[in-house]
Amino acid sequence: MPKTRFKREFQDEAVRLVLTSGRSQRAIADDLGVNRSTLARWMAEHQDMRPSSAPPPNEDVMDELKRLRRENEVLRQERDILKKATGFFRQGGKSMRFTFIDAAKAEFPIQRLCQVLEVSQSGYFAWRSRPACQRQRDDLVLLAHVRSAFRESNGTYGSPRMTRELQDQGLPIGRRRTARLMRENGLKARQKRRFKRTTDSHHAFPIAPNLLEQDFSAERPNQKWNADISYVWTSEGWLYLAVVLDLFARRVVGWAVSDRLHKELALEALRKALAIRRPGEGLTHHADRGSQYCSIEYQAELRKHGIRISMSGTGNCFDNAVVETFFKTLKSELVWRTVFQTRAEARKAIGRYIDGFYNPVRRHSTLDYVSPAQFERLAG
Question: Which residue has the higher pLDDT, 363 or 154?
């Protein structure tokens, strides 16, 4: 059969399928292995063609269509297999390929899986019949603990904190093994950032000197406090959060939220910290030069309790590094992972995070991977 004649008959058959099959052009184009734009052009060239006048299908054309459909199905399967196996290919090794085949055999024929992944069927069946080695059995046990700890951390622990969590549970595991188990099972802590200005240093209030000078170490509780204000977005608008941290154990000792950025917000967080900790002499309170912390009322509250006042230098965010780190942690582990519909919903979530997770449970790298509460108990 001349090439041009076959091409014409193939086009006619494709158009007939569009007109008579009831299927979409996209489905028929994918089935025949042609571009949708090409099929649309063929349709335009055959505008006067009707189902009733369609010629009977040519036997050679139908055979060719069947062959093309079979080849198209094979290519589709190979494409989908390779797409799903990308992660396994990165890790390498026949064992990982056999694991993928075992997981994907419900979607694809085993013969096709082995062919695409370049392993033999006999090798796969031999691998499947072998009992798991001791290390694989141990991995399954460790993975159960990893999943549990990852869930309890609200999906925030990376491999360093996860390793320490498991080791403290008495499990023999190293950082590399933890990282591998988390990577193979898609357990990854994600972070992202967005910013909003909360510090207004253009005011006429008095400024205190920087007594801290970026020395964030403390030998005991209630020796150095660090305070600041940040923000949380909700569908109702911004919710502002003021916190006071004790630098000894990086513990939040006072916090408050409000829909407005004013001095009462900072005062409420401070008064909560004072009521809970009842600090003695020698406490230094450090904050930025925001109007909330420079206000007469706030500084009067500090002086009333004999607290030394310290403030950051002009435009130097590093002078407030510890509390800034807390806000980054809060946002990456809670705020940016959640869509808050109301301010009340955000307030409850922040309370659960600070009082139920951050202070009593969350492991801090600066505290040798123990929580603030545990660090204070160990030091006490």
Answer: 363
Which residue is associated with the tokens 């409000």?
Answer: 258
Q: Give dist(CA 344, CA 175) in Å, integer.
A: 39
Query: Among residues of the chain, what percentage have pLDDT more than 90?
Result: 27
Of the chain, the end-to-end C-alpha distance in Å amounts to: 94
| Tokens 């492991």, located at residue | 363
Kindly state the average pLDDT of the residues 14-23.
Answer: 74
In which residue are the tokens 């916190």 written? Answer: 243
- State yes or no: pLDDT of 52 exceeds 50: no
HEC letters along the chain: CCHHHHHHHHHHHHHHHHHHCCCCHHHHHHHHCCCHHHHHHHHHHCCCCCHHHCCCCCHHHHHHHHHHHHHHHHHHHHHHHHHHCHHHHHHCCHHHHHHHHHHHCCCCCHHHHHHHHCCCHHHHHHHHHCCCCHHHHHHHHHHHHHHHHHHHCCCCCCHHHHHHHHHHCCCCCCHHHHHHHHHHCCCCCCCCCCCCCCCCCCCCCCCCCCCCCCCCCCCCCCCEEEEEEEEEEECCEEEEEEEEEECCCCEEEEEEEECCCCHHHHHHHHHHHHHHHCCCCCCEEEECCCHHHHCHHHHHHHHHCCCEEEECCCCCHHHHHHHHHHHHHHHHHCHHHCCECCHHHHHHHHHHHHHHHHCCCCCEHHHCCECHHHHHHHHC
Mean pLDDT of the chain: 80
What per-residue confidence (pLDDT) applies to 6? 59
Q: What is the pLDDT of residue 19?
A: 76
